[in-house]
Amino acid sequence: MWEIVRANPWLIIVCMALLIPILGIVFGTVTSYLTAVRRAELEASLKHEMLQRGMSAEEIKTVIEASPHRKRCQRGTATVDA
Predict the structure, then answer these.
(1) For residue 8, what is the DSSP state?
(2) CB of 59 within 8 A of CB of 50?
């Protein structure tokens, strides 16, 4: 294997050019998934805590909808709050 690299050193650059974007895509996908999971965990714990405090479903809905940076689906169209 090392003979191929010694004979063709440009293969290192080609391999790196292919490997770096692939690793970037994998890293971005994994971190996006982990972020979504963590947000879901935090929202679930918030709802659980509000239920333990005796809040009604309407009050919980109001609090969750007032949260910043939350994606909502309204009448079939997705909007993102800033």
Answers:
(1) -
(2) yes
User: 42 pLDDT band (50/70/90 cuts)?
Assistant: very high
Identify the bridge partners of residue 80 per DSSP, sorted by sequence position.
71
| Spatial distance between the Cα atoms of 44 and 76, rounded to a whole number of angstroms | 24
The pLDDT value recorded for residue 1 is 80
Q: How many residues does the chain have?
A: 82
Domains of the chain, by residue range, sit at 34-58
Counting residues of the chain whose pLDDT is more than 70, the rounded percentage is 83
Number of helices followed by number of strands (H, E) in the chain: 3, 2
